[in-house]
User: Fold these one by one.
Assistant:
Number 1:
Amino acid sequence: DENLVNFTCDGGTTITAVFERDIVGVTLSDGRQLVLRQAESGSGIRYLSNDTSVEFRGKGNEGTLIEGGVTTYAGCVASN
């Protein structure tokens, strides 16, 4: 089963995430689409790109996108 979650982030940016089994499809408000695979996490959820340069982390109804070690989408809160 897939689960669609819309996140509203700092600066008016958004992330639409579709979670399905061990992957998440992410559409960013800048138009990019990414597919990330579930990875081990100390707490919450963690998904990585194949080359590990992009990471999506979440806990509760909050999420963060990190690209090349830099947080590019911060303060994201699920709105549904």
Number 2:
Amino acid sequence: MEGQRKKFYFTNRDVVMLAAFSALLLGTDFVWILGPFVGNMIYGVIEGILLITAAIIINKRYTVLTLGIVRTTVEIFVASAFVGTLTAFDFLASALVLEAVLQLYGPYASSLRINVLGMILYGLVTRTMFISISVFVYGMVLPGWLLTFMMIVPLITYAIGGFLGHKIGERVKYVVETI
């Protein structure tokens, strides 16, 4: 039983950090006020920075998965304002993929290459699910050029977010540890 407890064990400090990062991640939705073009250009960067920074600072397995569960739970109630409630599950699916990548390759969230790769896969999953649910479940009709834009641009922005998140996360972790 003790081994099971340690798998999902977060200290009080970790829980506070998870809450702070959850609030910041939920705040990223306000980027869409700037419009779909600008939103698609910067949303992935901000989300990538926050997820990788959280993984580096908290530095415990299941950090990203926990953030994904919290975000999905909250977004279920908010997502209907955008496209539909089911689109909230793209956050959980993406978090599962990123969590798996971070856990499978070396110490958790310690490699720049793996963090960037993880965020590219995160972006691919989140966009694929969002577009699939929007089109096939909710019946949105989107032109081909927009679908292409919505798939390719986020892959680039999530990669940039993963890169910046790694750089920022390392610096913030150093500051947090010296306090």
